[in-house]
Design a protein that fits this description.
- By secondary structure, the chain is mainly alpha-helical.
- The protein has a single domain (5-118), classed as Orthogonal Bundle (DNA polymerase, domain 1), CATH 1.10.150.130.
- Helix content is 62%, strand content 0%.
- The chain has helices at residues 5-9, 13-33, 42-53, 63-79, 89-102, 114-118.
- The N and C termini lie far apart (62 Å).
Length: 119
């Protein structure tokens, strides 16, 4: 990645550091899966994001963190001159589903379900 002061100033230092960590995580995940991180596809990115949302070893990441990770991947691909469409329909639908599953009900409101109807 060439040194370009204008490019460096486009994102805060902490944002660039976080995006770099996101890239390290993604490339490690790709190595474990035997895939090339520099050949992005909506299927590959979708599989990674799905695992982040439903990690069996932990609670899974929040939908906001997963979206930030996706932003980090998009930024890293752009830095490498690799084309990646983060607004791909499949990824947008996947993120929407992750948000629905991972977002708790607002405080003070109860979930609507069969028990609610029987009251």
């Amino acid at each position: 990645m060439p040194d370009d002061p204008a490019r460096e100033d486009a994102f805060a230092k902490n944002t660039r550091a976080t995006y770099a960590e996101d890239w390290v995580h993604f490339t490690r995940w790709c190595r474990l899966k035997g895939t090339d991180p520099l050949a992005p596809s909506s299927e590959l990115i979708g599989r990674c994001l799905t695992e982040l949302a439903s990690s069996e070893t932990s609670r899974g990441l929040s939908s906001n963190t997963i979206e930030r990770r996706l932003s980090g991947l998009a930024w890293n691909y752009a830095q490498r001159g690799v084309s990646f469409d983060r607004k791909n329909r499949d990824l947008v639908e996947l993120l929407s589903g992750i948000k629905r599953r991972n977002t708790p009900c607002p405080c003070g409101k109860k979930r609507f379900g069969p028990r609610t109807l029987s009251r």
